[in-house]
Fold these 4 entries.
Entry 1:
Amino acid sequence: MDRFSARIKTIHELHELHERPPKSFVQMSHTFLDGLIKVVVGDITAQRVDAIVNAANSSLMGGGGVDGAIHRAGGPVILEECKEIRRTRYPQGLPTGEVVITSAGDLPSRFVIHTVGPVYGQHAGSESDLLAACYRNSLSLAIKDGLTTIAFPAISTGVYGYPLHEAAAVSSEAIKRFLLNNGEVQEVRVVFFRDADADLFVQHQCFE
Ligand code: AR6
């Protein structure tokens, strides 16, 4: 295991130890763009929307954080479909910023869109473009499949180390741009585990 993987494992273990879904199920905090965007505190796996987005890794074989929670709550169907996607379309793994879709197994959402966020500091300055691509490509794939309500976690801000305030500006700008050019989406929900993370996002968002 290289030094970087070792670091991820350590942070990942910390995640598992310290992060538990909040007691409140879904607590509304803020809305933007006439209610089209909702910022909530909750568990991404509990969102009843057309599609939730998974902060996956390129293997698509599961992991910790959001990825682990989605596979645990959704059951084995999701992993089976991910394996098939790897076999048929991405034998080398899903590239950073790209997206694929699977069904959602036992989750209340209908589908899971899997994307791979950038590892902060590992993409020679392209991190913000890659993070924006995760949001843009997820929304694009959703509307292509007729899905109009989508819930996102804060991609890359956990194990992948992207500072939440920087990610807030990048992700909100990407979502806003997409919505201005595409009228089909009915709701984008941005879901945070902790109140403090949602507050930080609200302070740094560029929706308005
Ligand atoms: N609901 C909502 N937000 C959550 C949840 C949840 N259930 N769990 C964590 N968060 P992370 P990344 C928040 O690490 O940084 C995995 O091992 C968390 O507080 O899930 O993109 C994958 O397999 C943080 O703010 O995603 C990859 O290897 C945010 O979600 C790697 O981690 C994202 O944290 C991806 O790392």
Note: Confidence is low (pLDDT under 50) at residues 1-26.
Entry 2:
Amino acid sequence: TEIPLREQNIVLIGFMGVGKTTIGSHLARKLYRDFVDIDQEIEQEYNMPTTEIFKTYGEQRFREIEKEHILKLCSNTRLKIISVGGGAFLQEEVKQACLASSIVFFLDLNWNSWKDRLKMLIDTRPNLQNKTLEEIEELFRSRQDIYAVNHSKIDTDQLDAEEVADYIIQTLN
Ligand code: S3P
């Protein structure tokens, strides 16, 4: 990309509930950058939680809104920390826009650790609802390829959110 490395946005991707928002907030604070969480932006714009947006407009429409937000943000900003939803990279255009404007980190967690977080996540994540644990595991596994866009995968199993942020900062230097 033509944007100097130090000026690029940092985009965090990975499955629902891996800690993109928490880690992104730490990163923003430590790097004195602004933090943007795409899901939160959409929820504010529509003044409803994502579960309601899915119910009212459907996932398809949510994806269009998500794409608009990410494309606009990526083309207009530098130096931001951006957390995108776990399904954003299903859209090729979104993936390409992020890779062209930002350093992308894939926050990974193994299935066994992730599974323990399910209870905490289910009420706010429409794509986890009305599924068996087997179906959720299948979704979790099928998404891995979508996030593997470069070599910046971070295994977060043994690290807390702040340690992940510190690790990312180290790789930037
Ligand atoms: C989704 C992930 C969510 C949110 C929406 C759909 C998905 O974001 O965008 O509920 O399909 O993976 P988080 O990854 O921040 O939970």
Note: The beta strands are 9-13, 35-37, 81-83, 102-108, 153-155.
Entry 3:
Amino acid sequence: MKKLLMCAVTMLLVLCLIAGPASAARAAGSAGGVPPLSAGAVPRLAGEEGDPDEEGDPGAPDDSYDPDESGDPDEPGDTGDPEEPEEPPVPEPEEPYVRVIDPSKPMVALTFDDGPHDTWSNAILDVLEENHALATFFEVGRNVRAHPEPVQRMAELGCEIASHSNAHKDLSKLKKKTLIKDLDTADAAFTDAGVEPPALVRPPYGAVNKNVKSATGRSIVTWTVDTEDWRSRDAQAVIDYVQNYGDLDGEIVLMHSIYESTADAVRVLVPWLQEQGYQLVTVTELLAYYYGELPQPDRFYGYTYFSSHGRTDTPVPLPGETVPGAGVPAEEPAEEETPDTPAALADEPEAPAESESPAEEAPAETDKEWKPVRVPDTVDLAPASIPNPALFMP
Ligand code: NI
């Protein structure tokens, strides 16, 4: 009996097991399109059905079924449609770069002498352009005549173009007339190249005397940090010197745009300086934003000036700018600085010229005092600066 009972029970169990899937299959069949809702079935069905293919979006099979097979009104997912047109407009993050200088933050002015050089000036400009940085180029007039293209590009990028005399002579050895003629000749080269005659002049070798300092109608600027790149011709040496210099806030760094080694160093230093938090500004920007004064004609900005002045509490706006203050607006500066900087410089001399007395004294003294004396004014250079004129001559 027991065996019979066991057999009966086993038979029932087997029947149940067989009937289970069958009923489930029937249930599925009666439900119409429901099966796809089971998670496991969706991927396979997606391949079989034609709908998803039409949408061409195999990545979202779940969503593609709901609207097609079930009642549209039941699916709140459809409400997503109106959002779609709003998202496309997003791809407009490519706004033009707007350069903003914050006078309250660290800034340093990179300067390059002796160019322009077709290859290395452009290599340096490449780096500046890539990093949205500006620098000041003290160019030799006769080199500008020979290679005007880099100068034009400097102007386009918004870099400051300054004069380094016409023939790279020791200006402190020239008579006043010759001195002025040399600078005027250089100015003509800049004009012929299509840029404004510079208001800033850096005398070759940093050599100055009273005439050079205060009788040219220009602003005379030297530097505070001498990389001696012309001496080492070694990119790593220049990089090491700048990176180990210490605080560069408010400094004017001297380099030369006629060496491959310098261009190589710049490729490393520009991004590095920015990573350190320095804003790379032009000399005029540094004077205005850091030292609080626009370059004055017949004034000498040498090592003594920079080492005896600190960051100003009242940054001055550049001509054409509206607000200089601590906040500095973001709108116009970038665009205006580019084309206006050179022009602005040319305009500056007018106002202050009247109040300048040195200009009147210099000419009077010139005849008497003028001697080819190497006035110890060159001592006003940065400590490490003892350039060898012979090595500098183009
Ligand atoms: Ni030079």
Note: The CA atoms of residues 141 and 296 lie 22 Å apart.
Entry 4:
Amino acid sequence: VTLARQVAAKAATLEALREAIEDYDLCPLKQGARNTVFADGNPKARVMLIGEAPGRDEDLQGKPFVGRAGQLLDRMLAAIGLDRGSPDPARAVYIANVLPWRPPVNRDPEPAEIAQMLPFLARHVELVDPDLIVLMGNTACAAALGTRGITRLRGSWTEAFGRPALPTLHPANLLRAPANKRLVWADLLSLRARLEGRA
Ligand code: URA
């Protein structure tokens, strides 16, 4: 973690940070991964979304949230007028994960892996400098807030990395439990309201 902190702090740009992560060999997850999955979307976006770790599709393509959960995420974002591909910072989002490498057979990341890569995530947020953060799922909350319990945390604004952050359910959870979509819908409306300065 000490080396990760030093290396991450030295990265002065997102491109430098991406290279620093690609060159970081101390996380065992890297050995089993095909690609380093850094981020997607517009780095000028006002909103930064933080997920967990790449799945199979993300590992193959080297981009976050391109599989089924990602497609659902894109549809939900579109419903509140957001689009990761948008050049307009007010409509765009920027998307990253706690871990840049796929855990074997998609197992949950271990606390030690989260802790090891946290300095990179913290620097990532600093360099993107978003107005608002959305923490998707327990791993994002564990990393950014130091606590799990997403069903209790979701829907209430808190602070992460020194800025307003909204925990919500991970889109993969919604694939397993579609009835939870109404909860995330409420969270998205809360995000929309913040973006419009209504809350
Ligand atoms: N789930 C995540 O948390 N991140 C991805 O990039 C894809 C699925």
Note: The mean pLDDT is 97.
